[in-house]
């Protein structure tokens, strides 16, 4: 399961050389209130404090006169502590791995920073020796190689010149997004990173990341729905959650290349005469819509009520869902470019409609990741990206407390059909039960597909929540081993969700690997429960149990 990645940029820019700050920005800050009603600094104040910290600590942050920064995200804790996340450019070129988070005390003083890379960003030239058309050709070949035997149509490539600081010494590179359609008309896409001097491939990864009325759903029984009355009928649109809504894609697909869509599958808003939606069967097209809207509602409520996040982007704005996408499409995905969730119906043999609750939580959590740490979708950071969606999607399922879809540590158990051959897509207690995922970290784990390298973090999260050994929870049997033979005692899933969310939004960056995730979660546990607390020690023990030290 996957999502089309987009860089998210803030509106505030700081130029280190000459301290160039626009008048409009200064006015906006000076006219903004300095504090919330509860005394905490405002977002604008945090950005202003961080801008001052950037000027004072430019050398330590690796900032030079050739670079600019832009704000991606801001978090202000209840005690006034501020965390401002930045992206970076070098001679106006995006720097992959240039992101960092500045941490400030309640009074605005600098406390430190987390950086995706600590290497100096300095290039002899920003003029490529490999042309853009050549980079595009290489990327097209890479997409075709990733789909050997498949007939791809309407293949397009869009190269972008960047600085790659994710893979060793910073260098000039082409980041090329290439996309097309398979023989069924369903989308395929890949991002290819090419050395702009030699033409050699640096990295490549898939860029489609795969997974008050009432409604009778496919997987969750009868569920409550907030809808909108329009004349004598009702719309499947929720005014209490940012106007999130669900529409019918009518079996069509998007024709989009690199954020520019020449045509999009529709999202024809579902309407109903009596505000009782669906029938619990696929014969009624509204049934899948019920599941999708319900999944959106529960995911929204989980992030808001547990983490204080108002919507996926944290801005109170709702997303929307499209169901019945494509032809027997065996996938679901979050797309930043439309700020929407899209669900296929499955082929009926391997998968049924992919609208299950944990799938919705998984895919929408990709949206949260893209707005915060933006974990690169390859290598160990890609595994952490997928694991974040598995972990937080699982937390959504537990949060919903639905007796028809009880909480568990299985991923996608509702959507698999007998033709899939396994009880679920992934198993958090012992990831290797799926035949491909890693139970423990090793130096080669970053070479795995990101859905399989995610196993290390999934296993960590299960151990931290429930502990090691055999047990039965909600009727599901688990038996979680440890790499070092230790016995791990769990601290409960609620605390795990809070620790992982804070680590993601405050400490992780685009290049965070497993060692960095250990540090990030320990910092989060220290913030939430104190250094040396039982929770802090349990985080350390659970990472050691999956061979991350």
TrEMBL record:
Any one GO molecular function term: metal ion binding
Family: Belongs to the peptidase M4 family.
Record's subcellular location: Secreted
Cofactor: Zn(2+)
Record-linked PANTHER family: BACILLOLYSIN (PTHR33794:SF1)
Signal peptide: 1-37
Domain named Peptidase M4 C-terminal: residues: 373-548
Source species: Streptomyces actinomycinicus
Protein name: Neutral metalloproteinase
InterPro entries: FTP_domain, Peptidase_M4, Peptidase_M4/M1_CTD_sf, Peptidase_M4_C_domain, Peptidase_M4_domain, Zinc_Metalloprotease_M4
GO biological process: proteolysis
Pfam families in alphabetical order: FTP, Peptidase_M4, Peptidase_M4_C
Highest rank taxon of the organism: Bacteria
Top-level class of the enzyme under EC nomenclature: hydrolase
Recorded GO CC terms: extracellular region
General function of this protein: Extracellular zinc metalloprotease.
């Amino acid at each position: 399961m996957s999502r089309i990645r987009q860089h998210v940029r803030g509106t505030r820019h700081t130029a280190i050389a000459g301290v160039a700050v626009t008048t409009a920005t200064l006015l906006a800050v000076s006219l903004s209130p300095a504090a919330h009603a509860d005394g905490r600094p405002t977002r604008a104040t945090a950005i202003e404090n961080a801008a001052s910290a950037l000027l004072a600590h430019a050398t330590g942050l690796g900032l030079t006169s050739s670079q600019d920064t832009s704000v991606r995200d801001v978090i202000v804790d209840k005690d006034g502590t501020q965390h401002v996340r930045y992206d970076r450019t070098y001679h106006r070129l995006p720097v992959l791995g240039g992101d960092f988070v500045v941490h400030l005390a309640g009074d605005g003083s600098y406390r430190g920073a987390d950086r995706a890379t600590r290497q100096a960003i300095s290039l002899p030239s920003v003029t490529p020796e490999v042309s853009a058309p050549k980079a595009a050709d290489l990327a097209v070949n890479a997409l075709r190689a990733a789909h050997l035997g498949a007939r791809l149509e309407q293949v397009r490539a869009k190269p972008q010149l960047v600085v790659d600081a994710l893979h060793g010494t910073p260098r000039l590179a082409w980041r090329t997004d290439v996309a097309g359609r398979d023989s069924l008309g369903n989308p395929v896409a890949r991002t290819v990173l090419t050395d702009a001097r030699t033409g050699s491939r640096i990295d490549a990864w898939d860029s489609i990341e795969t997974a008050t009325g009432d409604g009778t759903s496919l997987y969750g029984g009868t569920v409550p729905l907030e809808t909108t009355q329009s004349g004598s009928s009702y719309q499947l649109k929720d005014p209490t959650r940012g106007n999130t809504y669900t529409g019918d894609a009518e079996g069509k697909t998007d024709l989009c290349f690199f954020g520019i869509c020449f045509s999009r599958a529709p999202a024809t808003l579902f309407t109903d005469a009596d505000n009782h939606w669906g029938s619990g069967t696929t014969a009624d097209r509204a049934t899948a819509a019920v599941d999708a809207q319900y999944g959106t509602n529960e995911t929204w409520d989980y992030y808001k009520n547990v983490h204080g996040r108002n919507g996926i982007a944290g801005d109170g704005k709702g997303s929307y869902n499209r169901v019945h996408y494509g032809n027997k499409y065996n996938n679901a995905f979050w797309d930043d470019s439309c700020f929407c969730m899209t669900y296929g119906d499955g082929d009926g043999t391997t998968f049924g409609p992919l609208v299950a609750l944990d799938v919705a939580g998984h895919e929408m959590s990709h949206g949260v990741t893209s707005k915060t740490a933006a974990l690169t979708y390859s290598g160990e950071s890609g595994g952490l990206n997928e694991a974040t969606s598995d972990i937080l999607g699982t937390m959504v399922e537990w949060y919903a407390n639905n007796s028809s879809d009880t909480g568990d540590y299985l991923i996608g158990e509702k959507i698999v059909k007998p033709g899939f051959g396994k009880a679920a897509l992934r198993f958090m207690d012992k990831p290797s039960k799926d035949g491909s995922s890693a139970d423990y970290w090793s130096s080669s784990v970053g070479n795995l597909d990101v859905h399989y390298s995610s196993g290390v973090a999934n296993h960590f999260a299960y151990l931290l929540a429930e502990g090691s050994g055999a047990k039965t929870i909600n009727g599901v049997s688990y038996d979680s081993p440890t790499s070092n033979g230790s016995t791990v005692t769990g601290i409960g899933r609620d605390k795990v969700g809070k620790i992982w969310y804070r680590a993601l939004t405050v400490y992780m960056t685009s290049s965070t690997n497993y060692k960095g995730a250990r540090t990030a979660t320990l910092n989060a546990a220290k913030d939430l429960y104190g250094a040396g607390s039982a929770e802090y020690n349990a985080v350390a023990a659970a990472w050691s149990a999956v061979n991350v030290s």
